[in-house]
Specification:
It contains four helices and 16 strands. By secondary structure, it is mainly beta. The chain has a six-stranded antiparallel beta barrel. A six-stranded antiparallel beta barrel has the order 10-11-12-15-14-13. It is globular.
């Protein structure tokens, strides 16, 4: 039987693990409409409460669901994380869908360590499912159904997208893209990078790296004519230098949990507060 752990989450800003005030560095502006499932999570600007600002990236994974990094939303009430924007890549375009958020659900592993102790922002599962206030008719991303090494080997290339910061106070209005290469787990461990290799993976700069504001955005792999999401941006090992590794959350280990949460949502379950799904 599914139980719920209710969290009181009351902060006015999004904690960005992929730190530093730069966008995807050395990347390129993505072609308009190339990533129709790309989503911008937006919050009120603390300095100008009437304005909304990009906070984190995300992807549309269902008619009413968006996938992002848990650390992007774990400090919000749904009323504070105001909306998601589904766009063609240009956040200044008036022809975009702006949708309020109804609920946010996290995997148990994000808030509890392996011994069952409460430990928010655990690296075990930096992933969250955001339920929208109403359904949308739009393209969704395809999620990886197999382990990462079934698709790609170390050294091969993944694509990352996002609207990261271009100054200390301004994020990019244009969606950017860059190539990252998959790094062997042993190399990351040898460099004393802390990560859970069963739920996360290391990526290195190819044509660019991710930074602040890119958290929650997808890591994508092209398989013939199909593009699948194999991970999402979590954090960097140190700063945003191209010499430092990025850490991404694997999608496939959470696929069963994600599917279950979507079924619960579509069955009419309406929690009163933000909830953490516990099996």
């Amino acid at each position: 039987m599914r139980k719920l752990f209710t969290a009181l989450l009351t902060s006015a800003f999004c904690l960005i693990w992929a730190n530093s005030a730069y966008a995807i560095r050395d990347g390129n502006v993505a072609e308009i409409g190339k990533y129709p499932y790309a989503v911008s999570l937006q919050t009120f600007d603390k300095s100008s409460p009437a304005l909304l600002q990009h906070s984190c990236g995300a992807t549309l994974v269902g008619a009413r669901h968006v996938l992002t990094a848990a650390h992007c939303v774990d400090s919000f009430e749904t009323s504070e994380l105001t909306q998601v924007v589904i766009t063609n890549g240009d956040l200044t375009d008036t022809n975009q869908q702006i949708i309020a958020i109804k609920n946010i659900v996290y995997p148990r592993e994000y808030f509890f360590d392996q011994q069952g102790r409460l430990e928010p922002t655990s690296s075990n599962a930096d992933i969250a499912l955001v339920e929208l206030n109403h359904a949308v008719q739009h393209d969704i991303v395809t999620l990886a159904e197999l382990p990462l090494d079934s698709y790609i080997s170390s050294g091969e290339t993944l694509n990352v997208i996002g609207w990261g910061m271009i100054s200390d106070s301004q994020s990019s209005s244009q969606l950017k893209e860059a190539d990252m290469s998959l790094v062997d787990n042993n190399i990351c461990h040898q460099q004393n990078i802390t990560f859970n290799q069963h739920r996360e993976f290391c990526a290195d700069a190819a044509s660019g790296v991710w930074c602040s504001g890119d958290s929650g955005g997808p890591l994508l792999l092209e398989l013939g004519e199909e593009t699948i999401q194999v991970g999402l941006v979590s954090r960097r090992s140190f700063d945003c230098s191209s010499t430092n590794k990025g850490i991404a959350t694997r999608v496939q280990p959470q696929l069963e949990w994600l599917t279950k949460q979507q079924r619960i949502s579509y069955s009419g379950y309406e929690p009163e507060r933000l909830s953490i799904g516990i099996e």
